[in-house]
Amino acid sequence: MAHPTQLGFQDAASPAMEELLGFHDHALMIVFLISTLVLYIIVAMVSTKLTNKFILDSQEIEIVWTVLPAIILILIALPSLRILYLMDETNDPHVTVKAMGHQWYWSYEYTDYENLGFDSYMVPTQDLTPGGFRLLETDHRMVIPKESPIRILVSAEDVLHSWAVPSLGVKMDAVPGRLNQAAFIVSRPGVFYGQCSEICGANHSFMPIVVEAVPLENFEKWSSLMLEDA
Asked: For the chain, how many structural domains are there in total?
């Protein structure tokens, strides 16, 4: 999760987020190179006393500054499109979870099971256990198996919400009357935090998301206990 004074992204916990981090570094390097070139040209133009009579009318340089940006845009667009298609793939998900946004909490329903669902409320500050994170902990976590394709169906019951977990590279709008879909794979066990990312009213800041990834056998035990309690 994020920590104070952090400037970069959270550590990636899914293949999609690793791809996004790689693309971010790729695009940022191109931006740095362009910025350096433009800064050099500005300094050279301001500081030099030399003149070039061909600089005002040169077919060759016009070709260069038209073709070069087009090539740079292609170098940015192709990796971007590849990642977009990768993130949109949903191939044989092992677990499907439906997340419904409410004012101001989330409810989860595991559609592969007959009666497995629960509401997830933020834990008030006074009820936090030692080591708990203020405004991020919930009374019920969304538990999923690690290294398994997960499909999340996102909708809302009242106003616009957004289900977002940065370290998993997932952000999907929850729209009333519409069912949106996202897919991800958690590559390691752990607890991953997110928040509603669409302003949804007075308590928008108080509906966190907690995803806990566990080995498959632990997930099966957890689901059995939840079904027994139901």
From this structure: 2
Q: Which of 62, 88, 114 marks a domain boundary?
A: 88
DSSP-assigned states of every residue in 99-166: EEEETTEEEEEETTSSS-EEEE-BPPGGGPPTTPPTTT-BSS-EEEETTSEEEEEEEESSS-EEEEEG
Q: Could you tell me if 102 and 174 lie in one domain?
A: yes
Amino acid present at 183: A
Q: What is the mean pLDDT of the chain?
A: 92
Provide the 10 A C-beta neighbour count for residue 127. Answer: 10
Last residue of a domain, one of 88, 114, 134: 88
pLDDT of residue 59: 81
pTM (2 decimals)? 0.86
Residue 158: Cβ-neighbour burial (10 angstroms; 0-12, 13-18, 19+): middle
User: Are 194 and 130 part of one and the same domain?
Assistant: yes
Q: How confident is the model at residue 56 (pLDDT cuts 50, 70, 90)?
A: low
- CATH code assigned at 196: 2.60.40.420
Lowest pLDDT segment from 40-54, 62-76, 115-129, 150-164: 40-54
